[in-house]
Specification:
about 130 residues, four-stranded parallel β-sheet, globular, Rossmann fold, about 40% helix, single chain, alpha/beta, 4 strands, 5 helices, about 15% strand
Length: about 130
């Protein structure tokens, strides 16, 4: 199985949502992780609420904020678009999704971010055979 890590600064919102959605939507092909260069004691509660409301996934039961050093070796690294220098994480494929942080914004912004994450997971899954040949 291909190991994928979603990386963001605090590992509390976008990367956590991506981990949960990837496991839910593509867990048959990806082993999903998320991490950050820093951690937060609690995940973004709007992200937790909306992922539970839309997908019936309780992120707080299976996920927590982690550091890059907590990750196993991965095949794919996806950065969320944090606009900071991300430390090098060895991988076979890397891409940046350029997603704005919805923290502090209304539910519509969160829902749009969730929708973009879902679309990007489906796209990544469809490109997986191409990525494996890199």
């Amino acid at each position: 199985m291909v190991k994928i890590a979603f990386i963001c600064v605090h590992n509390s919102c976008r990367s956590q949502m991506a981990e949960a959605l990837c496991r839910h939507l593509a867990g048959d092909v990806f082993e999903c992780y998320s991490a950050g260069t820093e951690t937060r004691p609690q995940m973004n509660q709007d992200a937790v609420r909306l992922i539970k409301q839309i997908y019936n996934i309780d992120m707080e039961k299976t996920q927590y904020s982690k550091l890059l050093s907590d990750l196993p070796p991965v095949d794919i690294v996806v950065t969320m678009g944090c606009h900071v220098a991300c430390p090098h994480l060895p991988c076979k494929h890397r891409e940046d999704w350029g997603l704005e942080d919805p923290t502090g914004k209304d539910d519509e912004v969160f829902r749009n971010t969730i929708c973009m994450i879902q679309e990007k997971i489906f796209d990544l899954r469809s490109r997986l055979s191409d990525i494996r040949t890199l």
